Amino acid sequence: MYSAILIAGPTASGKSALALHLAERLGGAIINADSMQVYRDLRVLTARPTPEDEKRVPHLLFGVVDGATNFSVGEYLAAAGEALAQARGAGHIPIFVGGTGLYFKALLHGLSDIPAVPAAIRAAVREEAAGRSPPELHARLAACDPRTATRLRSSDPQRILRALEVFSATGRSLSSFHGARAKPLIDAQQCLCLFIAPQRTALHATIDRRFDAMLGAGALGEVGTLRRRRLDTALPVMRAHGVPHLIAHLDGRMSLEEAAHLGRRDTRAYVKRQFTFARHQLPEFLWAAPDQLTPQASARVRSNP
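Request: output the structure for the sequence above.
Response:
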């Protein structure tokens, strides 16, 4: 039997359904590998497993982090290690599922050995950055760490802030730490790694339908509750697909129809990046269409008793 199963894929590709099928068949525990589903604030809008599904098999690392927390990849990896030990200790095969390619890369390859940033420095950097636009922050990073700045999109404030924090704490480029890596949590040679790759047009249609369904299921109310917390807009949970636009609607700055259109558009753009990352950064994964994966996965599991 494989020591673990890893199921990656773009948003709305059917990852959770496959994970649930295999968990029930194999006595598995599902461990989250999605950077938005770790947050407890947005169950509907991030398509977290339903309470009913969570009762069918053990689910770990879903909805365990408060939205006010900047939950880093390093923190995820530490939590994933605890979840892995918990699953194995209970006799369950660990089944990691999610759409965050960087989480899977960290699980299989470890993280760069970057020194911890003191809390005081992190707070000072974020206080200085408050109110500044992502392009302004990117320009600031380019002035002190041009090597890292060229690798980051100017619309990605979370990673830009991380690079600024590391530079402030160490005086070194974040890129300079990328050579040395800690030991991986999971050995890819002992795992079944699957990437669900739907046909792009069909996937886009599914994304559109699901976003509308989430609005009908209470996503706008979730965002309203999040809005009242007045959190830093650079936090990951505040940048979940649809959140900025739905907040703009609640503020009276755009119609719900326009907010939904932009949420669907952003999700489709993210899917393109998910495919690109997996293609170049996750070579261990077997790609297959959704209608092939359940029988293919089952066959692979049967061949590794």
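The longest strand covers residues 93-98.
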